[in-house]
Amino acid sequence: MSSTRLGLRAGELASIRRAASARLTPVLTNRTSAHRPSGLRLVAPSTTSQERRYAGGRYNRAALQGMMPRIGDQASPSVENTQRMSVNMGEMLERALSMVVPGTFVLPPPSQFPKGLGKKLKFLTQWALIKFQEALTNASVVFSSKPGIFKRANLKVKRGSIIPTAKALHRAVSEALAAGHKGTLSKICTRHLAGSLLASIDSRPRGRHYSWELVNYTKKPFYPRLKAHRMTPISTERNAPLIRQAIVAISSKQRVVQYNAKGEVIPGSEKEMDVVENVAIACHIDPKSGWKQSEWRYLGTIRPTTLDSWMQEKAVLNRRMMNNK
């Protein structure tokens, strides 16, 4: 459901990944974009001017003792590096959670396939190749969590819980946004999406209220359906955290109503709509803590992939791979 249906005016998040910038559209807002973060860089502590002057013998012992911090006043270099690394890793995780994993392919319904038999075959071939790579990559991640070849993997994927989780988050976010519950949005959405949604709540006309209702799920023989499920590390470092991302297509009938300051329904504001949304959810996995998985968070909604958009994204990914060699 877009922001215009609730009269919201959320600002767009900064476009980071050019090839896929138009593909991610958070629910009830305009859009956001994806980017693959680079690795961490640790900064060694530099030598201070006091230390250089001490080496030159320009201060007496009493003066030096007065300038030097007491025990506990300053963290050791190793502690500072650890703290800096934790901050950088946390920032990378937040950024990665808010972005579509590069190379994500969201197959549209057959009615939206490209015209022409040749283009249709090319489109489906690209999709089949991506699905194969997706399955192979996910299997390798699960295998890498094994403590031994003949032992069970520590990572429990539980694919069967993905669709119910996506449906629950989709409903919770829409209800919280309509009701203006900022705390709920901050808890279950990614940081970037939450910031955009909170801004849209603040920009509402004074005294205007909204209600959102999921009337029922539609097209049940075909929806909901898992469109993509990917796991990828956020950097090339050994045992780096992984982002787990899933795209679930949900078809539903929704009702939106607007109210004035007196709680009265604004005439003509009640609307029912049948929509199909590709809901994106994400979490992170930490290999260093026994492959524990964080809570799923709501990322937004994603537009279906087109042949043109995919070929453009594929070209960008190929150039990045060549530059990394």
TrEMBL record:
Q: Which GO terms describe its cellular component?
A: mitochondrion
> In its keyword annotation, does this UniProt entry include Transit peptide?
yes
Which keywords label this protein?
Answer: Mitochondrion, Transit peptide
InterPro entries named in the record: mtLSU_mL45, NTF2-like_dom_sf
- Cell compartment(s), UniProt: Mitochondrion
| UniProt keyword Transit peptide present | yes
Write down what this protein is called. Uncharacterized protein
Source organism of the structure? Corynascus novoguineensis
Q: What is the lineage of its organism?
A: Eukaryota, Fungi, Dikarya, Ascomycota, Pezizomycotina
